[in-house]
Sequence to fold (235 residues):
Amino acid sequence: MWSLLCNALALVAMLVLLILAAWLVRGGGGATGAPVIGGAPPRRGPDYAASPHIVVDTLNLVHALAEADTAAVAMPPRPALTPAAIAAVIDRTAPVLRARHPGRVMYVIKDRESQFNTADAREVYRAAADRNNVYVYVVERYVDPPSGVAASAAHSARGRDDFFTALLARRWRCAVLTEDRLRDFDEFRATIQPFHVYEYAYWRRLPEREYVRPEAAAYSRMKKPRMVRTEEYFG
Fold:
């Protein structure tokens, strides 16, 4: 009789220990003492801001740095947007960005709305990529655009560089350095005409060329990228 009672008590003790162990494995009561219900904890996405790569909205950066440099001026001049001036901003900022992002530092630039890029302008960007060990993407309109999205007067229709920064951010799982809020992001695919891009890599003499049709189904689920602000690097 005594032996049966001891065996029963041992069995109860074992069951209590198993229940307690399962409760601890599932998180115990947590900090609040409330039981954790469910299986594994929710999975978090990657922290794009901590990525080794970074995409730069270059024209936006030119404006942001110019505003910071002339903050005490009542009527600050508009920053120059010549290829040489843009390349100077790449020279100024690339060491800081490369120190924080040892992977790919990618500057995105678009051609002007009023004129197409020349071979000389592209050479300035290629040289900037080469001497700074970065990537420069020159986003350009077609002289004779292929059929697709009709020309639009909407502000979003000029956002080909913003669309491509989002595409690169998705491709490399990283953030975009910009002060732009991309409020018209959801309009891009309906208003931006097809465009092409020259990629200048510091380790390659000749560029690669990419052709992008924003209205394509492949981009139908593209979301607004994670964005970081200029002051986080140049505050």
